[in-house]
Amino acid sequence: MSKKQRQLLKSAVFTAAIAAAVVNAQTRTAAPNWPQWGGPNRNFVVEAPRLADKWPESGPRVLWTRALGVGHSAIVADNGRLFTMYRKGAGRSRQGPWESSESVIAIDAATGKMIWEHPYPSQIEDFSYGAGPHATPLIVGDRVFAAGTNKQLFALDKNSGKVLWSHDLVQAFQAPSLLIRPVVKAGYGCSPIAYRDTIICSVGGPGQSVMAFRQSDGGVAWKSGDFLISEAPPVLITFGGRDQLVVFGGGTVNGLDPATGSVLWSHPHDPGNDLNISMPLWGDDNILFVSSGYKAGSRAILLKQQGEATLTEELWFNGRVRFLFLNALRIGDHVYGSNGDLGPSFLTALDIKTGQPAWQHRGIGRASMVYADGKAFILEEDGDLTLARLSPEGVTVLSQTKLFDTMSWTAPTLVGTTLYARDREKIVALDVGVQ
Questions:
Q1: Considering all CA atoms of the chain, what is the largest pairwise distance in Å, rounded to the nearest integer?
Q2: DSSP H helix total and E strand total for the chain
Q3: Are 264 and 308 in contact (CB under 8 A)?
Q4: How far apart are the first and last CA of the chain?
Q5: Which of the four CATH numbers 2.40.10.480, 2.60.40.10, 3.30.450.40, 3.40.190.10 does domain 190-325 have?
Q6: Which CATH class, in words, describes the domain spanning 72-186?
Q7: 293-347: per-residue pLDDT in tens?
Q8: Any residues with CB less than 8 A from the CB of 14 and at least 6 apart, and which?
């Protein structure tokens, strides 16, 4: 090889290396998204760049904060924009006042400034435990799908907020306006999920416990089920080489074919009041974990294949462990969540194989959590934010800060190195990356 050829080869290798470095850098820095309840995988466990192991005494750096309003809708993110829902009203009172309207809102993720807002009428329900909206929007392509307190379902243009189609599920399909058995009926809270070209949510009524709507025009793709519904978000799993939709109903947990709505299996889990609120957790070991308060407790259900049929086997039941309504995490063979319903609640680790608690930490109460980079971001209902490592041996608290001074029942959202959180008055954006 001549000297000139060697120089050309070196130049080509160098150019290729630079190109690869640029591609890798772009891959690493590409804007991550949080398109739905629970994040990309709908389980509150996300991939993230390296995050700080400790915060300053004053807490993570605040990037921005903005006033919002009441509601429990979580924040979803897509390409530099945030989407959530709220209602104007008093966030510090169980008696209101609250306005008889709600809004879906788009916000600039970098500044907190509003991009667009879609308000709609929404009557006040029993908001003694917090005003709606309760459901979290869903982003698919160029659309935002949102469900309001009174079972209004909207498809909005992601860029403008224009209504593309909508349904009043009560008027259009004669669905019950509220859950059947609870004493406190706070309004609709099921966060929709996408499957292929449909979105799916609980509706209620004969033959339509669950319905799938075409994303394009809102047409009904299928409706199915005669079980009581709840407020729990549905979740997609893969079992036996096929997709299944797990729907936590008011007294049962159910598996459906997400393409047709056919009910594949059902297993009892009855709290006595339809308030199965937390989303089921699925693992690669084919174990489904469900939990709620009151008399239902927690149970692990093993799915088994028999020919074309799916069978359920209850591995264990523990009536003393009650993850009521805030999200739990499954990490390895343990589930971490807030144990307690009407009384005090404590962070608890539960062995998924045996149903026995590994530990209980009384220093952290009722809380929502997100897990990334080997750490948990734990937002307690009183506004305390904790950074911790979770393991079967215990919890190691790395840092804590006071974030809010009103009730926060909304799970935080982690996008890259930015944590977004809200209470019943405002949204805060925090830089939780390595400084």
A1: 87
A2: 2, 32
A3: no
A4: 49
A5: 2.40.10.480
A6: mainly beta
A7: 999 999 999 999 999 999 999 999 999 999 998 899 999 999 999 999 888 999 9
A8: none
Evaluate whether 113 touches 107 at the Cβ level (below 8 Å): yes
In the chain, what are the domain boundaries?
A: 72-186, 190-325
Q: What are phi and psi of 345, to 5 degrees?
A: -130, 140
The angle at the Cα of 213, spanning 211 to 218, to the nearest 5 degrees, equals 135
Q: What stretches of 174-325 show up as alpha helix (H) in DSSP?
A: none
Tokens of 138: 């869903």
CA 144 to chain centre: 15
Average pLDDT value for residue range 406-428 = 97
Q: What are phi and psi of 379, to 5 degrees?
A: -105, 110
Sheet holding 263-268, edge to edge: 235-239, 242-248, 252-256, 263-268
Q: What percent of the chain has pLDDT over 90?
A: 88
Alpha helices in 57-162 (DSSP H): none
User: Using CA atoms, how far apart are residues 57 and 43, in angstroms rounded to an integer?
Assistant: 30
Name residue 36's amino acid: Q
Nearest to 200 by CA among 269, 276, 147, 134: 147
Determine phi and psi for 175, rounding to 5 degrees: -75, 150
Residue 209 φ then ψ, to 5°: -55, -40
The CA distances from residue 26 to 19, 21, 319, in Å, are 11, 8, 49
Q: Which residues contact 139 (CB under 8 A, 6 or more apart)?
A: 33, 35, 36, 76, 78, 83, 145, 158
Q: What single letter denotes the amino acid at residue 337?
A: G
